[in-house]
Write a structure and sequence with these properties.
Shape: globular
CATH class of the largest domain: Alpha Beta
CATH superfamily of the largest domain: ATPase, nucleotide binding domain
Number of strands: 9
Order of helices and strands: HEEHHEHHHEEEHHHHHEHHHEEH
Number of domains: 2
CATH topology of the largest domain: Nucleotidyltransferase, domain 5
CATH architecture of the largest domain: 2-Layer Sandwich
Strand content: 5-15%
Strand order of the largest sheet: 6-5-4-7-9-8
């Protein structure tokens, strides 16, 4: 019913985008988890849909709604091609040393326990744009991309491809987020199960929905609210932001060590594009590793300014703010697949490159 309502709104006289439902030539679906089954965007067939269902247990919060959306669209538009674009596909270039966890190897072999990574379309987009901005061939550019929104993930880009990323088997691993904890001691799960007399799934739910900034402040998940509270003297709000900044810095340092040569640090997504405070606090004390921020330029820069260089002229490593455009990646993948021009994101030449 929801899909039908969306389609009806496209032709409704008050919200009309198209004249007739027959003008819809394809439907693109953002699918969060493709495991290691999908290395690129694909036309949805019965086999593809079944495979998405097979790996749904890896993303129980996200894939089931994705599946409902695909099946509903197929029902409402039975003759229209459906295209799946996977959050995980961009990170299928990770080497084994990056994606294998130091747990019993049989967990990987039997159950697919490994790092997959997410926000792939965003990291892909800003990687291509950064290479263009820096005038470096896309297969030679080295970056640390920081997707900071309510969800947060970081990626080490070497020669234009993902070689490490902060999110893991699920989007819960990695950075501190609006409501997600990010990296914690795994033993906390069993420890709190005993203390609260509950099951592991209950603790995981808390780590996903009631942790991160919301957990520390016990009030706010939105950085704007947290910064307002900090300015009003709320010490817990300041602590929460200090924790986030410290953890961002740790990932930047780790990825710069992995890459050895870094052309730029790229901030993107809602917070990365618009929150000068998070950017400044992250970078201001990192001159020792080649990051020099133009403080005044950073303070006045928002995502609406478009692609902006935030580093000083003498900064050994560039600092960029690049507004992401995941929709552009999805649309171009869909059109290219329909027209038979798409092989994979590794080979396809996007219009924004």
């Amino acid at each position: 019913e929801a899909i039908r309502n969306i389609i009806d709104s496209l032709t409704d006289s008050n919200t009309k985008v198209i004249d007739d439902i027959n003008q819809i030539k394809a439907v693109g679906h953002r699918v969060v988890h493709g495991a290691d089954k999908f290395h690129k965007s694909v036309l949805v067939t019965e086999d593809v849909l079944n495979t998405i269902k097979e790996v749904a247990h890896l993303a129980p919060l996200h894939n089931p709604p994705n599946i409902i959306g695909i099946e509903s669209a197929m029902e409402v538009l039975p003759d229209v091609p459906q295209i799946a674009v996977f959050d995980t596909a961009f990170h299928q270039t990770l080497p084994p040393a990056a994606y294998i966890y130091p747990v019993p190897y049989s967990w990987y072999e039997k159950y697919g326990v490994r790092k997959y990574g997410f926000h792939g379309s965003s990291h892909l987009y800003v990687t291509k744009r950064a290479a263009k901005y820096l005038n470096i061939p896309k297969d030679q550019v080295n970056l640390v991309t920081l997707h900071i929104g309510n969800g947060v993930s970081f990626t080490a880009i070497e020669n234009g491809i993902s070689i490490d990323t902060s999110m893991g088997l699920t989007p819960l691993e990695g950075a501190m987020m609006g409501t997600r904890s990010g990296d914690i001691d795994p033993a906390i799960v069993s420890f709190m199960c005993e203390k609260l007399n509950c099951e592991a799934k209950d603790i995981i739910n808390i780590l996903n929905k009631k942790s991160g900034h919301l957990g520390v402040t016990e009030k706010y998940a939105d950085r704007r609210d947290i910064e307002d509270a900090m300015d009003a003297g709320d010490e817990r709000a300041k602590l929460s932001l200090d924790i986030e900044v410290r953890r961002i810095q740790k990932y930047i340092g780790t990825y710069m060590a992995l890459l050895k040569r870094v052309d730029a640090i790229v901030f993107t997504a809602g917070v990365g594009e618009n929150d000068w405070y998070i950017r400044q606090k992250t970078i201001e004390n990192m001159q020792n590793i080649g990051l020099k921020l133009d403080i005044e330029k950073n303070r006045r820069t928002r995502g609406s300014a478009g692609e902006t260089e935030l580093s000083t002229p003498d900064s050994p490593v560039k600092i960029l703010m690049i507004p992401t455009n995941e929709e552009a990646v999805l649309v171009e993948d869909v059109v290219a697949i329909l027209e038979g021009r798409y092989d994979s994101h590794m080979k396809y030449i996007y219009s924004f490159e």
